[in-house]
Amino acid sequence: MRFLTAGESHGPKLTVIIEGIPSNMKLSSDMINKEMFKRQGGYGRGRRMQIEKDTVVITSGVRHGITLGSPITIEVINDDHKHWLKIMGVEEGEEMTPDKRKITKPRPGHADLVGGMKYRHRDLRNVLERSSARETAARVAVGAVCKVLLESLGISVYSRVIEIGGARDNGEYTLDEIKKKNDINDVRCIDETVAQMMRDKIDEAKSNGDSIGGEVQVIADGVPVGLGSYVQYDRKLDGKIAQSVISINAFKAVGFGAGYDMKHLPGSKVQDPISYKEGSGYSRMTNNLGGFEGGMTNGMPIIVNAVMKPIPTLYKPLQSVDIDTKEVYQASIERSDSCAVPAASIVCEHAVAFELAKEILNEFQSNDLEQLKESIARHRQAILDY
Ligand SMILES: Cc1cc2nc3c(=O)[nH]c(=O)nc-3n(C[C@H](O)[C@H](O)[C@H](O)COP(=O)(O)O)c2cc1C
Ligand SMILES: C=C(O[C@@H]1CC(C(=O)O)=C[C@@H](OP(=O)(O)O)[C@H]1O)C(=O)O
User: Fold this and answer.
1) Which residues contact 206 (CB under 8 A, 6 or more apart)?
2) CA atoms lying within 13 Å on the CB side of residue 336
3) pLDDT tens-place string over residues 278-308
4) Nearest CA to ligand 2 atom 15
5) Distance from Cα 75 to the centre of ligand 2, integer Å
6) Can you tell me the ipTM of this complex?
7) Does ligand 1 come within 6 angstroms of the Cβ of 5?
């Protein structure tokens, strides 16, 4: 399975083509929209999210609510586009007046300056339009399709926010609690007291003209044993997931299970002892490794923790240099998110869902959904019998 997204942040729409989803799977725009809605929300987002109503249109690969096995095309309209017609210059006969409208002031922490140098753009809007995290809406649409597939195979993927700007939810929860409570509030944090501390941190950053980041957690449950492989570096599934997560705008660190804490723990507190029970087979007595051994899933829930940096665009000006005049200036802005960690946790969840679905479709016969289910059921049985 593969996908490609296209579209500028303030262009008419985002488009994504997904190839490789099996035939005969139920799929509707509503199934995707419920995930899109979750990404759009979240405490700390800026005015843009009040303009957009992220709903998808499926324009290929589905008939009468059933996938055909052919490429699925999904479109997400940018409602904000109507305010940017002249600047985007996509209207028939619409002339650009580059001198007035071009962006020559790169924002620190964005792709602006390096992107301009690399693609030889003197108008940095040509970089920022595509480097914007608007693209993550398309990635959630893909992940939503993957989640429908995974659910039909008994695999659930969900996420929550663990920390924002130092306010951390250290609660120990069962998988069931996390699954049930992962959408309880606008910061996606299970502990209500910590959730309020997170909102306060966001408000504080905003009123200081600053921004904050945080940490999210994605969990995947019901994953078959043995996805990924130790035999070649680029077949290790934890590596693929890490790449996918770090490719999300502003994600700077990723860990599995005890992750970053492993640096100060002894081996006896990190490796997960193996147990065996007639009828349910092998298991691990703990899950410090987050469901991976040797780049392969070991049957324990996959636990991915990831850190998002603070939003780079700040109301409090940061120094930069104009690429035309070479003059130093203080970058200021009109609108931006001050924290997008809750929204980004949804993006992360969908990135992991994509990697899992892709790996499964790679590993098992999968032209048609029933064929895939049978193939996975046989595999699960063989693992039990081992
Ligand atoms: C959901 C989401 C929303 C974001 N919103 C903004 C924003 O409003 N303003 C901003 O400057 N950066 C925002 N970002 C982060 C930038 O897109 C990102 O930092 C930038 O493209 C540079 O990429 P890098 O941080 O991965 O190097 C957002 C990221 C995500 C995931
Ligand atoms: C549009 C989205 O996020 C945008 C990501 C973003 C950035 O620089 O990454 C900047 C902001 O856009 P604008 O400059 O239009 O206000 C965010 O709103 C979205 O998440 O759908």
Assistant:
1) 44, 315, 338
2) 24
3) 999 999 999 999 999 999 999 999 999 999 9
4) 48
5) 18
6) 0.98
7) no
